[in-house]
């Protein structure tokens, strides 16, 4: 059913009026008076003039984009803000992004860094400790490079598997996204670097991203996309939140009081500051009153520098109370103290490339997902004749494009056609799977064929005991994928090679789920995502069994695009990326509501190709003994996990719930369990109470309904093998 935009507008306008009339801008909703960061921020601000406070609200372009140069004092980065003289505060050196330290347009001579694998790989580990380690690594590299704000991590849900920036995010489930992204944020900030939760909110597509209105019932949004952000905030406590380009229910996200003030600052008691995305500010008074605290790179990215002279004029005219300026400045300064960056300012030093690359490698080893392993073709024999085909596997691994792109240490190893337009040619990190495979199995006879000539590849396949085909899909910020197919001739290549040698393994380096018309013709499939700086050795170790696969999908792989909630994206085939971002298709009604990804498939009884939560390994597991208990409103699922195979391995049992009034099942908890062969362990999982509830929009709170709940102990979202029920009495919770 198509939702009423009139309702959206009335709700948004009402929220806007409430914010504009609020009398106590300087009082944080969280304020208890005992937080040292609050006290120190107020002490600093007490000696500042209004001019000094307003200088904190506007950063300038950091250099590199479209040929711009670094400003005086800036290092060459996404943005720079000079601290008020005499304040004792550090200048803000702001760097992209969530996978590592970016060097825009190679502006810094020493700007190469170690890159994590994609956010999807980190999320697919289902390992919060691994996510935190990943955050520690990139936070440390940012600090060693002189930066104190890192623009990551991304928590937008995957509402469309063709999204150009899906690889930066964590997947389609709010609980899994919130916990994994929040853990990475916590790791970054442990290094005295502010992490930025983005892109808030509903920035789920790149098509028309600068103008599109994502229209969704506010209740459904609270139960899906916003719940992911809420859990990420609770888990990671980011110093900053970045509002997104798009409109939400007709209001730009950076002018949306329901998002920025009502939900973020009041309901969630967020004490930090909101910065705009680059080019996402459209006003001064309207944005400030809605809850935007800092305009990003406003001298370059926005139509006007709104938070300079225009905002000053608004304050003088009384359109923006000075109390609001005080609140904006206090939130920014508070975050500087909260993560310790004032007392532990960056010390530029050489990166520990070896150690950091091993972190990226471990992340990829845990996050790659084994989708198919017919006849136990994997792990590979160390003495086999192996034909490696395609994907530039002889030199490196592909990465996603855009503002998360990291300059590879060792340089780019694939020379592209020299595309000038954003985002340029695909970048391959110099981490060769072929070389790593030869190092892991020196007695194997391993050959390489580029795959550009299918006849040549078929001959190589005929001569081998087993074939490993590397296939890529380049996705990037600014454009959604025109289709869900692999790049170039990959589908035809895999089909031909598998016909020549059915003992074929496909290693996919992709930013999204893809269609796999050849799936039943191959023996093995390993989804490696964008593998990062340690990708080559990680893939080789997985293929030869030096480490067992343990990743599980965080996105549903459909059988066809017709199964999607929105089978086509209008305008996605535009040739010019920048024109596509301003495409006239400016409204998208998310009438699937909170049923994102696997919930949509469950609601419509669609069978996916590979379901959310799915992943194989080199041993087998079983679970039993599911018991449910409720105490003081907290539901706990207890069960046993057994390694029934002959190899050590990791299982990720998942707990899903179904509410008494029906609807799609929801992930409510999980546990990652490492077991030796024959070992068993009892596991307890506490279920997030919000996944047992509906959001009550009228009373602005969560409400658990009375009745019988169904609980599944599952290996993936479609596993119905173990179920239990329990009766809960209705209760309400604070938002």
UniProtKB/TrEMBL annotation:
Lineage of origin: Bacteria, Pseudomonadati, Pseudomonadota, Alphaproteobacteria, Acetobacterales
Family: Belongs to the glycosyl hydrolase 3 family.
Entry-linked InterPro entries: Cellulose_deg_GH3 (IPR050288), Fn3-like (IPR026891), GH (IPR017853), Glyco_hydro_3_C (IPR002772), Glyco_hydro_3_C_sf (IPR036881), Glyco_hydro_3_N (IPR001764), Glyco_hydro_3_N_sf (IPR036962), Ig-like_fold (IPR013783)
Signal sequence coordinates: 1-20
GO molecular function, one term: hydrolase activity
Domain Fibronectin type III-like: residue ranges: 651-717
Domain of life of the organism encoding this protein: Bacteria
Keyword terms of this UniProt record: Hydrolase, Signal
Protein name: Glycosyl hydrolase
């Amino acid at each position: 059913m198509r939702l009423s935009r009139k309702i959206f507008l009335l709700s948004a306008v009402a929220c806007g009026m409430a914010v504009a009339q609020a009398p106590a801008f300087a009082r944080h909703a969280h304020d208890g008076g005992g937080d040292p960061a609050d006290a120190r921020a107020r002490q600093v601000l007490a000696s500042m003039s209004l001019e000094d406070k307003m200088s904190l609200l506007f950063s300038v372009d950091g250099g590199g984009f479209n040929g711009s140069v670094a400003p005086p004092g800036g290092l060459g980065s996404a943005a720079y803000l000079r601290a008020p003289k005499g304040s004792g505060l550090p200048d803000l050196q702001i760097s992209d992004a969530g996978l590592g330290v970016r060097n825009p347009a190679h502006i810094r001579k020493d700007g190469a860094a170690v890159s994590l694998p994609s956010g999807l790989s980190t999320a697919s580990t289902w390992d919060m400790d691994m996510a935190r380690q990943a955050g520690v690594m990139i936070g440390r590299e940012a600090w060693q490079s002189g930066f104190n704000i890192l623009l990551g991590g991304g928590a937008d849900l995957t509402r469309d598997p063709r999204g150009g920036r899906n690889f930066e995010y964590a997947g389609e489930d709010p609980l899994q996204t919130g916990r994994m992204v929040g853990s990475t944020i916590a790791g970054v900030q442990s290094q005295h670097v502010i992490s930025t939760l983005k892109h808030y909110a509903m920035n789920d597509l790149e098509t028309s991203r600068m103008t599109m209105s994502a229209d969704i019932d506010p209740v459904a949004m609270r139960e899906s996309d916003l719940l992911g952000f809420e859990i990420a905030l609770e888990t990671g406590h980011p110093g900053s939140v970045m509002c997104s380009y798009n409109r939400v229910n007709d209001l730009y996200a950076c002018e949306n009081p329901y998002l920025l003030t009502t939900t973020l600052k009041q309901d969630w008691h967020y004490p930090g500051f909101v910065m705009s995305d680059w080019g996402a500010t459209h006003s001064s008074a309207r944005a400030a009153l809605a809850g935007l605290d800092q305009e990003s790179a406003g001298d370059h990215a926005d139509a006007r520098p709104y938070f300079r002279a225009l905002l000053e004029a608004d304050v003088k005219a009384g359109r923006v109370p000075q109390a609001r300026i005080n609140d904006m400045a206090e939130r920014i300064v508070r975050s500087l103290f909260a993560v310790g960056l004032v007392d532990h300012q960056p010390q530029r030093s050489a990166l520990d490339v070896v150690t950091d690359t091993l972190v990226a490698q471990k992340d990829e080893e845990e996050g790659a997902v084994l989708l198919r392993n017919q006849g136990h073709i994997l792990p590979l024999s160390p003495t086999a004749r192996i034909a490696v085909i395609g994907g530039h596997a002889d030199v490196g691994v592909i990465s996603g494009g855009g503002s998360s792109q990291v300059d590879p240490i060792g340089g780019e190893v694939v020379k592209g056609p020299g595309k000038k337009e954003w985002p340029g040619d695909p970048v391959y990190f110099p981490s060769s799977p072929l070389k790593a495979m030869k190092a892991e199995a020196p007695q194997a006879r391993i050959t390489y064929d580029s795959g550009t000539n299918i006849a040549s590849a078929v001959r190589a396949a005929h001569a081998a005991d087993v074939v490993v085909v590397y296939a890529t899909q380049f996705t990037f910020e600014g454009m959604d994928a025109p289709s869900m197919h692999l790049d170039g001739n990959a589908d035809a290549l895999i089909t031909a090679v598998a016909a020549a040698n059915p003992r074929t393994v496909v290693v996919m380096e992709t930013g999204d789920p893809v269609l796999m018309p050849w799936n039943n013709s191959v023996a093995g499939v390993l989804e490696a995502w964008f593998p990062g700086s340690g990708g080559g050795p990680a893939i080789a170790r997985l293929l030869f069994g030096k480490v067992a696969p343990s990743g599980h999908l965080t996105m549903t792989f459909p059988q066809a695009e017709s199964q999607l909630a929105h089978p086509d994206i209008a305008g996605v085939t535009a040739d010019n990326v920048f024109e596509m971002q301003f495409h006239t298709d400016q409204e998208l009604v998310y009438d699937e509501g909170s049923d994102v990804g696997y919930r949509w498939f469950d609601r419509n009884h669609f069978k996916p190709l590979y379901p959310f939560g799915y992943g194989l390994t080199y041993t087998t597991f079983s679970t039993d003994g599911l018991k449910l208990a409720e105490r003081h409103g907290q539901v706990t699922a207890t069960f046993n996990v057994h390694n029934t195979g002959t190899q050590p391995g990791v299982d990720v049992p998942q707990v899903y719930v179904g509410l008494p009034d029906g609807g799609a099942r929801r992930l409510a908890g999980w546990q990652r369990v490492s077991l030796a062969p024959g070992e068993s362990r009892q596991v307890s999982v506490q279920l997030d109470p919000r996944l047992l509830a509906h959001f009550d929009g009228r009373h602005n709170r969560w409400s658990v309904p009375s009745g019988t709940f169904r609980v599944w102990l599952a290996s993936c979202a479609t596993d119905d093998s173990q179920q239990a029920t329990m009766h809960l009495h209705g209760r309400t919770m604070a938002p």
